[in-house]
Automatic annotation (TrEMBL):
MF terms (GO), sorted A to Z: nucleotidyltransferase activity
SMART domains: HDc
Entry remark concerning the domains of this protein: Has four distinct domains: an N-terminal nucleotidyltransferase (NT) domain responsible for UTase activity, a central HD domain that encodes UR activity, and two C-terminal ACT domains that seem to have a role in glutamine sensing.
Designated name of the protein: Bifunctional uridylyltransferase/uridylyl-removing enzyme
Stretch list, region Uridylyltransferase: 1-318
Pfam families named in the record: GlnD_UR_UTase, HD, NTP_transf_2
């Protein structure tokens, strides 16, 4: 008898040979079948070695193993089929030893022991078991038992075709609801467009036709030869990824985890170029799953319509001489229409825009559309008739609905060659959760949401502005082109702007509209950067932004594009904090544009105004005016200019009611700009900022904004806007108390024992963001503005604050922005003597920061 160790070594040797075949580009279908055949022989030999030759037993492969497909760490699903008589004690013992032996060889065994009757009964109750049984294959043992099972499975009452179809369709819908095809770490087996979607097509058809392979479905006229070829091509690519995933992870892993993607891309032969190797691989992956999704939708609908004969009579409503509505579907009336007149391809989608009752494309029409798409020899935009129809779509109120369907079915890329280049284009980072084309598609849907009544609470300003835009179609075009040049190298905003100009000229648009679209594309990031990374309470910052915007029309277009863009980047990006920043910047800029030019701020008058409003509130609360005056005489003018009267009153009341010099830590009950305001009043001391940042980091708090100030008598007056990790304000009382106590304890101690920083999360480990420090012109006299780009690691701001202290640099304000794995933070700094940093001091600080953050990267 072969020992389990010998069998285990044989499997290891086999895997090594298969890896060598894989890297030598042997067909993946042959490789997965080879492994299945090897396991067949191993099990058959072991069956004989354990003398399991009784007529009471049959060994049956089910599931993926039943199909004869095994990846390096795939489960081996087995059914031990037994006769109706109970097994003898000796046979039970032998069977137990056999299963133990298989585990000892290293095989991942999933097994069940049942009679034929029990198997059929379980299969009728559970669609997953029934599906596994459809692919059952006898390995060895009693053939009669297996034949009996085989015959029972094919009886009409064991999952009739229509019931089986509905069950698998429901199963698929449930699976799709739990994941996106465009996840950053997709499950290549279960996500939409993954291997399960290919198998679902096969299962429902094989159940009906009693076919053993996909190839047989062509003989039954269910699949066209070209569709079979496409399905197999997609399946083989997904198999190649799955095989590489198993050998890289060394386990049965089906998720394309970030920390494995680079290695898998290398195994598949991709190399870094203009695009990273991993981005090239993922681009093909996302394109593949989109193809599978379309085939899956079409073939399952065709199967239900043409094969099962259970489709209900759908109401037919004529649209024109070319199209009709069949229930909720649009249907073409002439099979040659799309190939005879290409503009009719576009007209199909125009009809979708014009008829809100149409929700999808009828499967036979989709098949014709796919064939016409494949037969195109030039971009559709080269055809003047096509251009005319597209402009109708752009001008229609429901044009985005049509564009969404065009994207889904590959017609946008057939129309616009530049769109084809971004299909499936991913960016290997944690910020961009979707491919470039899918991100743009979601941006378009967000623009559509602005017009929906139910979205007014989430987008109150967008809901107003979208209806005030002179031409909504210009915003749509700006959205389509804003990222269309990504992945080419160079500034995608400028390259995309040129593409937009060329498009507008080709489509006969006037120069004014073309320039506006191009301006939107070139400047689509400006409002976001200004709001999130600049001090928008500074009039000079707002005035500079107003100069770029020109007028309120451009401002309104840019606001709508910016909000829709941020919301489409990933599900966690948009929050009340960003909404508040953008809204404040919009209205501040609108005021500047209305005046023509911002008037200089009268500092003294502004300070008096803020103090007067705060005094009014404090007197109402019972505080004395002389106490306020005494307190505020210690504060510099900058404090009042950078706070609202209600904030000044809140701070003053707490300080005046505090009877000693112990630190004060306040957290607002009401949110400030969508976040929770944290105010710290304490005797200023070395590393105060670093201490606060360390405590907040260990409480898993995100810091978004910091105003660091010192009174004339050296007390810190520091204000922070903080949020939970999910972007929500901190409102739970116990959470607030915990943060306050931790900060009070750390600030009260001369040498606080601070907790260690959190560990770097798994998903962050594949990234290596080089630390980059740059100094920018500062709008505030006597200050320096510094930008820091680095990996977002635990304790980052604490390390930065410590470095400022060691370099004798004073921090005045900070804007903290996390973009996926990247921290892009802005700091306003000055020397301890109150001057801007000179070149030598800037270089010293830059070198110190790069050294301090080197270990984190």
């Amino acid at each position: 008898m072969n020992t389990a160790l010998a069998a285990k070594n044989a499997l290891i040797d086999l895997n090594q040979r298969l890896v060598e075949q894989y890297t030598a580009k042997h067909p993946i279908a042959d490789i997965v079948k080879h492994r299945s055949q090897f396991v067949d022989s191993l099990l058959t030999q072991a069956w004989q070695d354990f003398a399991l030759l009784s007529d009471a037993l049959a060994l049956v492969a089910v599931g993926g193993y039943g199909r004869g497909e095994l990846h390096p760490h795939s489960d081996i699903d087995l059914l031990f089929l037994i006769s109706d008589e109970p097994l003898s004690a000796e046979l039970e013992s032998q069977l137990s030893q056999f299963i133990t032996y298989l585990w000892d060889t290293g095989l991942e065994i999933g097994h069940s022991v049942r009679t034929v009757a029990q198997t059929i009964e379980q299969g009728k109750l559970d669609i997953t078991i029934a599906t596994n049984l459809i692919e059952a294959r006898l390995l060895t043992g009693n053939e009669h038992l297996f034949d009996l099972l085989y015959d029972n499975i094919r009886q009409h009452d064991f999952w009739p075709s229509y019931d089986f179809y509905n069950a698998k369709k429901d199963e698929q819908s449930n699976r799709h609801s739990k994941a996106s095809a465009f996840d950053l770490e997709p499950n290549i087996k279960t996500c939409p467009g993954g291997l399960r979607d290919i198998q679902t097509i096969a299962w429902v058809a094989m159940r009906h036709f009693d076919a053993a392979t996909l190839e047989e479905l062509v003989e039954h006229d269910f699949l066209a030869p070209a569709e079979l070829e496409e399905l197999l091509e997609c399946q083989n690519f997904l198999w190649e990824i799955r095989f590489a995933l198993h050998i890289t992870a060394n386990r049965n892993e089906n998720r394309l985890l970030f920390d494995l993607q680079r290695q898998i891309a290398s195994l598949l032969g991709y190399e870094d170029a203009t695009q990273l190797a991993v981005e090239q691989m993922m681009k093909r992956y996302y394109r593949t799953v989109r193809r599978v999704m379309e085939l899956n939708q079409m073939l399952l609908q065709l199967f239900k319509r043409a094969t099962l004969g259970h489709t209900q009579a759908l109401e037919i409503q004529p649209i024109n001489n070319q199209f009709q509505r069949r229930g909720r579907y649009i249907e073409v009336l002439d099979d040659e229409l799309f190939t005879r007149a290409n503009e009719e391809i576009l007209r199909l989608f125009l009809m979708i825009a014009k008829n809100s009752n149409i929700q999808d494309i009828y499967a036979p029409t989709l098949r014709l559309l796919r064939n016409a798409r494949r037969g195109l020899t030039a971009p559709l935009q080269d055809n003047p008739a096509c251009r005319k129809v597209l402009m109708e779509i752009l001008k229609h109120p429901r044009g985005i609905e049509a564009l969404s369907f065009m994207h889904k079915h590959g017609i946008l890329s057939s129309y616009l060659p530049a769109w084809r280049k971004i299909e499936g284009q991913m960016q290997f980072d944690l910020f961009h959760a979707y491919t470039v084309d899918e991100h743009t598609h979601r941006l378009l849907l967000n623009i559509e949401r602005f017009s929906q009544a139910e979205q007014k609470d989430e987008f109150p300003l967008g809901a107003i502005l979208i209806n005030q835009l002179p031409k909504k179609g210009l915003l749509v075009l700006g959205a389509i082109f804003h990222d269309i040049a990504k992945g080419r190298g160079g500034d995608h905003s400028k390259l995309g702007s040129k593409d937009a100009i060329d498009f507008c000229k080709l489509h006969g648009m006037n120069d004014h509209d073309g320039r506006l679209v191009a301006w939107l594309v070139e400047n689509h990031l400006v409002m976001s950067v200004t709001a999130q990374r600049r001090d928008i309470s500074d009039p000079e910052v707002v005035a500079e932004f107003a100069d770029k915007v020109h007028d309120t029309i451009h401002l309104s277009y840019l606001y709508c594009l910016t909000v829709a863009d941020i919301c489409a980047t990933n599900e966690k990006t948009w929050n009340n904090w960003k909404a508040s920043l953008l809204r404040d910047l919009y209205f501040s800029t609108q005021r500047v544009l209305a005046r023509g030019k911002e008037k200089p701020v009268d500092v003294k008058a502004r300070v008096n105004e803020i103090q007067a409003k705060a005094k009014k509130e404090l007197i109402r609360r019972g505080l004395k005016e002389k106490d306020m005056d005494a307190l505020w005489s210690r504060f510099k003018n900058d404090y009042f200019l950078r706070h609202q009267p209600n904030q000044v009153a809140w701070h003053a009341e707490a300080i005046l009611k505090h009877n000693n010099d112990e630190p004060i830590v306040l957290m607002s009950k009401h949110t400030t700009r969508g976040g929770t305001e944290l105010f710290i009043y304490s005797k200023d001391k070395p590393k105060l900022f670093a201490t606060v940042m360390t405590v907040l980091d260990n409480k898993n708090i995100n810091v978004h904004d910091a105003n660091i100030m010192t009174s004339k008598d050296n007390f810190a007056l520091d204000t922070f806007v903080i949020l939970e990790q999910d972007g929500e304000p901190i409102i739970q009382l116990s959470r607030i108390q915990s943060i306050r106590k931790a900060l009070e304890k750390a600030l009260a101690s001369e040498n606080p024992k601070l907790p260690k920083f959190r560990k770097l999360a798994r998903i962050m480990k594949p990234f290596n963001v080089a630390t980059h420090v740059s100094f920018l012109p500062s709008a505030r006299h006597g200050t320096s503005m510094m930008e820091l780009i680095t990996l977002d690691t635990p304790g980052l701001l604490a390390k930065v604050g410590d470095t400022f202290y060691r370099c004798n640099v004073t921090l005045l304000a900070a804007k903290i922005t996390t973009i996926g794995e990247r921290a892009e933070d802005f700091f306003i700094l000055q020397t301890q003597s109150g001057a801007a940093l000179d070149e030598q001091q800037q270089q010293q600080l830059s070198d110190a920061l790069i050294l301090a953050l080197k270990s984190a990267n």
